[in-house]
Amino acid sequence: MRYLSKVELRQSQPLGQLASAIPSNAYAEHQILWRLLAQSADEARSFLFRREQIGHWPMFYVLSEREPACADPAWKVTTKVFAPKLSVGERLGFVLRANPVRTRKASTDPTNKRRHRDDVVMREKRLQAEHEPDPARRASQAELIQRAGPAWLEERAPRNGFALEAIHVDDYRQHRLNKRGQKQPIRFSTLDYQGVLRVLDVDRFMHTLARGIGPAKAFGCGLLLVRRV
Fold first, then answer.
1. What is the C-alpha to C-alpha distance for residues 179 and 122, in angstroms, rounded to an integer?
2. Is there a contact between 69 and 35 (Cβ–Cβ < 8 Å)?
3. Which domain holds residue 25?
4. Is residue 205 within 8 Å of residue 78, measured between CB atoms?
5. Which residue, 61, 79, 173, 220, is most buried by CB atoms nearer than 10 A?
6. What CATH number is given to the structural domain containing 180?
7. Are residues 160 and 58 in the same domain?
8. Does residue 211 share a domain with residue 113?
9. Residuewise pLDDT in 10s, the chain (229 residues)
10. Structural domain total, the chain
11. Is residue 136 located within the same domain as residue 217?
């Protein structure tokens, strides 16, 4: 069983308390939700989340294996059982915040098993620069986003149990987080998707809803939210 929760600040608090409760970055957001789900530090993460901005205040959607137990008076949690009844061919509206990357070998040495994750937009920009020496003839970043972003999700759709019927991408962002005790900052990018999909395989699609799509799930990526069209 899984639970879908809406986590929002209690706005009846004094303004100063509200402001101090706002997490400073995606890592702090993850830590707040971890505490709400009463997970100990040695447990594997068992939830996905997505941040929304409602006026001045953050709000989160959380899909979790366990029901949240809100011990923090700053936050209000509304929870329902997540058990959608779906059928093959069903059309669903969706939103997804993803970390769209492609994995490549770090070296041509066959004994080197390391892999790099390349941001698909920056990868397109690099490949374009290699093939087009004149900057004036290169596509803009906005054009590269519209080219690389949909292609990344379209490639993953069939193995995740769905087909895309309509897709729109926007709000491409690059993030840099500094984690205490870690010298190198954490870097990742996000892209927001929305559109209409069609269910091809119910079991595989349900697994996708539970597991999420793409990496950086600890930083609010991967949660596929759907509604009936």
1. 24
2. no
3. 2-82
4. no
5. 220
6. 3.30.70.1210
7. no
8. yes
9. 899 999 988 876 666 666 666 776 777 787 778 877 765 555 667 889 999 988 778 899 999 988 887 667 778 889 999 999 999 999 999 999 999 998 876 556 566 666 778 889 988 888 888 888 888 888 889 999 999 999 999 999 999 999 999 999 999 999 888 777 677 888 899 999 999 999 999 999 999 999 999 999 988 999 999 999 8
10. 2
11. yes
Give the CA dihedral 77, 227, 97, 205, nearest 10 degrees. Answer: 110
**CA angle in degrees (0–180, nearest 5) for 62-68-70:** 115
Which of 5, 12, 211 is closest to 96 using CA atoms? 211
57: nearest Cα among 17, 97, 30? 17
Same structural domain for residues 196 and 116?
Answer: yes
Domain's final residue, options 49, 82, 115: 82
Which residues make beta-bridge pairs with 63? 4, 48
Structure tokens at 121: 């937009």
- Which tokens go with 41? 């530090």
CATH number at residue 75: 3.30.70.1200
The Cα–Cα gap between 145 and 157 comes to 18
Indicate if 57 and 137 belong to the same structural domain: no
| Distance, CA of 191 to CA of 172 (rounded, Å) | 5
